[in-house]
């Protein structure tokens, strides 16, 4: 298959293009800038998804069978501080990518659990009301709207939180893991009472592949573990037996954070998706154990 992956040099994008190459697909990776560590066999293209013409020209050149759209602004604080850029990337960019996708192709849009907002019931199913909180969540909800408007065969993946080796250190677990690897006695943290549903990024990426191949276009599917753990528990799993303690910092707290997110993965599991990576082992790897 000829496959386009947007955001091909991002955290999940690199894992995805590697998995696709292993399966023998011809992968075109769209990136904003040339990757520092290109993955062998991937044909990289510099495409700014905010540029409608660039998306159209590249799609016409490649004529992909599959399109995985992962490119986005994903850091919540960046989105909050730069809402115009966030909406241009996450909403207009999504419309540009799928507007340019060949009619006969299948696509996947990487959305987010954050579109649900504050849960009214747990675990969150796909028919839970959409009530995004904050700029990032709003942009992903509007991105789903752009998918609905494009009239193409696109499946929506609502991925819950994921982590693993290679995640940028601006994200919570990878930030703590870096501090632990450096041997810090005090680990700078935010609100440890928040509860999140985490998976290994390799399982989420495998979910993207299952959903694109077998999901119903226009429908949303959760990719989640079905279990919410407090950040305090996750900190303990990362720390292991190392002698370090959390130190809460006010600047790491965010007003309005949703306190608990936990997804029901049964709809994706009905298509054959399964998680294969133990989160405790993933965290131990990240901490250097």
Summary tags:
two-stranded parallel sheet; 2 domains; Rossmann fold; about 290 residues; alpha/beta; about 20% strand; UDP-galactose 4-epimerase, domain 1
Description:
Helices cover 37% and strands 18% of the residues. The chain is of the alpha/beta class and 289 residues long. The model has no long low-confidence stretch (mean pLDDT 97). It folds into 2 domains: 187 residues, Rossmann fold, CATH 3.40.50; 78 residues, UDP-galactose 4-epimerase, domain 1. Strands 3-2-1-4-5-6-11 form a 7-stranded parallel beta sheet, sandwiched between helices. The protein has a two-stranded parallel ribbon with strand order 7-10. Strands 8-13 form a two-stranded parallel ribbon. The N and C termini lie far apart (38 Å). Strand 5, helix 5 and strand 6 form a beta-alpha-beta unit. The chain has 10 helices and 13 strands.
Detail the topology: elements first, then pairings.
Layout: E1 2-6, H1 11-22, E2 26-31, E3 43-46, H2 52-62, E4 66-69, H3 76-81, H4 83-100, E5 106-110, H5 135-150, E6 153-159, E7 161-163, H6 172-181, E8 186-189, E9 195-196, E10 198-200, H7 201-214, E11 220-223, E12 229-230, H8 231-239, E13 245-248, H9 266-269, H10 279-286
Parallel strand pairs: 1-2, 1-4, 2-3, 4-5, 5-6, 6-11, 7-10, 8-13
Antiparallel strand pairs: 9-12
Number of distinct beta strands: 13
Strand count, sense and barrel status of the largest sheet are: 7 strands, parallel
CATH fold type of the largest domain = Rossmann fold
- First-to-last CA distance: 38 Å
> What is the element string, with H for helices and E for strands?
EHEEHEHHEHEEHEEEHEEHEHH
Q: Can you give the mean pLDDT?
A: 97
Oligomer: single chain
Structural domain tally: 2
So what's the overall shape?
globular
Strand percent estimate: 15-25%
Task: Please state the structural category.
Answer: alpha/beta
Strand order of the largest sheet: 3-2-1-4-5-6-11
């Amino acid at each position: 298959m000829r496959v386009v992956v947007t955001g091909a040099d991002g955290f999940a994008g690199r894992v995805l293009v590697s998995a696709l190459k292993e399966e023998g697909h011809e992968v075109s990776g769209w990136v904003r800038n040339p990757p520092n560590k290109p993955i062998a066999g991937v044909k990289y293209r510099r495409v700014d998804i905010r540029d409608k013409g660039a998306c159209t020209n590249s799609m016409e050149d490649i004529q992909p069978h599959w399109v995985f759209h992962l490119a986005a602004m994903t850091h919540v604080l960046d989105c909050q501080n730069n809402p115009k850029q966030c909406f241009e990337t996450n909403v207009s960019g999504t419309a540009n990518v799928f507007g340019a996708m060949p009619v006969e192709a299948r696509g996947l849009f990487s959305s987010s659990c954050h579109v649900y907002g504050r849960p009214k019931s747990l675990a969150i199913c796909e028919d839970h009301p959409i009530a995004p909180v904050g700029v990032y969540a709003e942009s992903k909800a509007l991105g789903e709207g752009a998918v609905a408007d494009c009239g193409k065969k696109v499946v929506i993946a609502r991925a819950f939180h994921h982590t693993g080796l290679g995640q940028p250190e601006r994200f919570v677990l990878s930030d703590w893991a870096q501090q632990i690897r450096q041997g810090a006695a005090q680990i700078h943290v935010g609100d440890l009472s928040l509860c999140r549903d985490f998976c290994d990024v390799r399982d989420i990426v495998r979910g993207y592949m299952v959903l694109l191949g077998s999901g119903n276009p226009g429908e949303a599917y959760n990719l989640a573990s079905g279990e919410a753990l407090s950040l305090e528990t996750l900190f303990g799993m990362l720390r292991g037996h190392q002698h370090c303690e959390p130190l809460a910092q006010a600047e790491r707290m965010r007003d309005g954070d949703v306190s608990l997110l936990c997804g029901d993965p049964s709809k994706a599991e009905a298509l054959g998706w399964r998680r294969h990576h133990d989160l405790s082992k993933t965290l131990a790897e990240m901490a250097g154990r």
